[in-house]
Amino acid sequence: SCPLFTGNPHQENSEVSSLPNLKDCLPMPFEDSRILLVVSYSIVFAIGLPTNCLTAFLIFVQIRKKNILAVYLLGLLLCELLYLSTLPLWIIYVQNKHQWTMGSLACKLTGYIFFCNIYISILLLCCISIDRYIAVVKSLETRGVRGQKKAMVVTVIVFITVLIVHCPAFTLDDGEQTQNQTACFETLPLNSTLTSLNFARFIVGFAVPLIILIFTNYNIFQSTKTSSSLNNHQKAKVKYLAIAIITIFLICFAPYHLVLLIRSINFIWNQNDSCSFEQRVYTTSVVFLCLCTVNSIADPVIYVLITVEVSTIKSVLLRFLVAMVNVPSKEEGGHLFGASQHGDIFITS
């Protein structure tokens, strides 16, 4: 499956032998989720790679037009493309019954990319929401604050920070491949160190960003209701983008972090027999964890909401639904990537 949890930093030789690993909780129900994982990864890879490549090209066009949000979205796309390139390795790993045969360095690099992808994506979603909050709610007070160069600086800072924070992945025992350990970033059961790390990841990597998203998007919704400077089309785009960001965050990242929290709480209350719980929740945990992968095909949706007119989106969706039921449509819509007929704060700002 995806890498489940970060492992322990290297410890003294006297302590290494006592570290828990996947073998301590065997047998695990790997087969229950194998087909689902392989099919899911394959579909995401087949859809995500071409759509993200196409969207990245289109985003470059928007960047040339001085679109600020395009900078954040380009960061998301580059991160997703890097993660998508590792999916074939996870497919091989799952098919091989969670036996990593490609060496320690490949395991560490693949796990590193996975963890970085999660938190770069979360932080850039927060950046998009904060940018919309400044542009919509605080437009008068923050005139001149936003800018494409500033967005580039923020994006670079996000990348550098997350990449540095996760560098210890290359020194973790979880990535070492030995005769006694052939799993890749799957430490079962938990231990005190991992439990502390999981609580930190839940608070810093999920709870704080969730608060930011709720605060910014709630105020955006309230502001658009009374705004006289935005027309109905612009208000609709603001709302749809906010809904898309919150939905992506909750579907892709909430289950993963809730699993971390639940497993960590269980370890605190039941340290002597946590394996039985791990075995019961393993399949559910893996499925929830791998919802993170869905994020790799969600970014093009944000691009569409940023650049395409709402009426065009509705028309395309209507045509699709009509085609599905094979009923002739009288609705006439524009091309999906046709020019906007209305001023759009997303394209001009």
Question: How would the blueprint of this fold be written?
Answer:
Layout: H1 13-16, H2 30-64, H3 68-84, H4 87-95, H5 104-136, H6 148-165, H7 192-226, H8 232-252, H9 254-269, H10 275-289, H11 299-307, H12 310-325, H13 345-348
Helix pairs in contact: 2-3, 2-4, 2-10, 2-11, 3-5, 3-6, 3-11, 5-6, 5-7, 5-8, 7-8, 7-9, 8-11, 9-10
Transmembrane segments: 35-61, 68-92, 112-130, 151-171, 199-220, 240-262, 282-306
Membrane topology: Multi-pass membrane protein
Organism: Pelusios castaneus (West African mud turtle)
Sum up the structure in keywords:
mainly alpha, globular, disordered C terminus, membrane, glycoprotein, transmembrane, G-protein coupled receptor
Description:
This protein is mainly α and 349 residues long. The chain has a single domain, classed as Rhodopsin 7-helix transmembrane proteins (Rhopdopsin 7-helix transmembrane proteins, Up-down Bundle). Helix content is 66%, strand content 0%. It has 13 helices and no strands. It has helices at 13-16, 30-64, 68-84, 87-95, 104-136, 148-165, 192-226, 232-252, 254-269, 275-289, 299-307, 310-325, 345-348. Helix 3 packs antiparallel against helix 5 (104-136), helix 5 runs antiparallel to helix 8 and helix 9 (254-269) packs antiparallel against helix 10. The longest helix has 35 residues, at 30-64. The chain is globular. It starts with 12 loop residues before the first helix and ends with a helix. The model is unreliable at 5-20 and 327-349 (pLDDT under 50).
Q: In percent, how much strand structure appears in the residues?
A: under 5%
The dominant shape is globular
CATH class: Mainly Alpha
Helical fraction? 55-70%
Order of helices and strands: HHHHHHHHHHHHH
- Into how many domains do the coordinates divide? 1
Counting DSSP E segments of at least 2 residues, the number of strands comes to 0
State mean pLDDT (0 to 100 scale).
Answer: 79
| CATH architecture heading | Up-down Bundle
Number of helices: 13
Largest sheet: none
Q: What is the radius of gyration computed over CA atoms, rounded to a whole number of angstroms?
A: 22 Å
CATH topology grouping: Rhopdopsin 7-helix transmembrane proteins
CATH H-tier superfamily: Rhodopsin 7-helix transmembrane proteins
Low-confidence spans: 5-20, 327-349
Separation of the first and last Cα atoms: 41 Å
